[in-house]
């Protein structure tokens, strides 16, 4: 990744500083390359409008990673959700290719109808990954030293809590936005 790509671009500046498990932050800062901003912002806005305008109250930032898992939250700063947008896009493309093949149709990137379907499925996938990670954020239990210093923490509910949150949000948002097929 080039130095230019590593620069952080903020969709909405936050008045609060990013601190571990900060409360009531509103819309998270999304640090990504400008070309990818629209895709993630669309998913964030969908969650806020379909689920709860305060859904992101415990998330300070969404970072876009260029590698790793679909998404992650770490105990060193659990208010930061990290997603791998390129991996999510690859998986969406793979699923659409398979679905179109089942219908004996070749998926074409430059076909406006196919692009509309891709955009919707991508938004759904980003919503699901962000909701999964939000489940981890809500599950996080910080640990502090006797002096009150942040020492990290744990995610006692594990994947079950995250999967439950993702399934709940997926059902709400997909009912409101049918696939354009």
Brief account:
The chain is of the alpha/beta class and 181 residues long. It has helices spanning 3-6, 34-50, 85-102, 112-139, 158-176; strands at residues 29-31, 61-65, 71-72, 80-84, 141-144, 150-154.
Q: How would you characterize the overall build of this protein?
A:
Helices cover 48% and strands 13% of the residues. With 181 residues, the protein is α/β, with parallel strands linked by helices. Strands 1-2-4-3 form a four-stranded mixed beta sheet. Strands 5-6 form a two-stranded antiparallel ribbon. Strand 1, helix 2 and strand 2 form a beta-alpha-beta unit. It is elongated, with a radius of gyration of 17 Å. The relative contact order is 0.14. Mean pLDDT is 82; it is low at 1-25.
Topology readout:
Layout: H1 3-6, E1 29-31, H2 34-50, E2 61-65, E3 71-72, E4 80-84, H3 85-102, H4 112-139, E5 141-144, E6 150-154, H5 158-176
Parallel strand pairs: 1-2, 2-4
Antiparallel strand pairs: 3-4, 5-6
Helix pairs in contact: 2-4, 3-4, 4-5
């Amino acid at each position: 990744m080039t130095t230019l790509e590593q620069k952080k671009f903020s969709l909405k500046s936050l008045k609060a500083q990013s601190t571990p498990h900060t409360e009531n932050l509103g819309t998270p800062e999304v640090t990504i390359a400008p070309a990818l901003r629209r895709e993630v912002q669309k998913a964030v806005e969908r969650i806020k409008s379909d689920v709860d305008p305060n859904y992101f109250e415990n998330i300070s930032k969404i970072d876009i990673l260029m590698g790793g898992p679909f998404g992650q939250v770490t105990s060193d700063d659990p208010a930061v959700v990290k997603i791998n947008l390129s991996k999510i896009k690859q998986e969406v493309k793979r699923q659409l290719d398979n679905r179109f093949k089942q219908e004996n149709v070749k998926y074409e990137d430059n076909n406006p109808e196919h692009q509309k379907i891709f955009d919707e499925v991508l938004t759904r996938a980003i919503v699901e990954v962000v909701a999964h990670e939000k489940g981890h954020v809500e599950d996080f239990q910080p640990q502090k030293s006797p002096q009150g210093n942040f020492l990290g923490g744990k995610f006692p509910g594990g994947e079950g809590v995250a999967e439950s949150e993702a399934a709940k949000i997926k059902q709400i948002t997909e009912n409101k936005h049918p696939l354009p097929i």
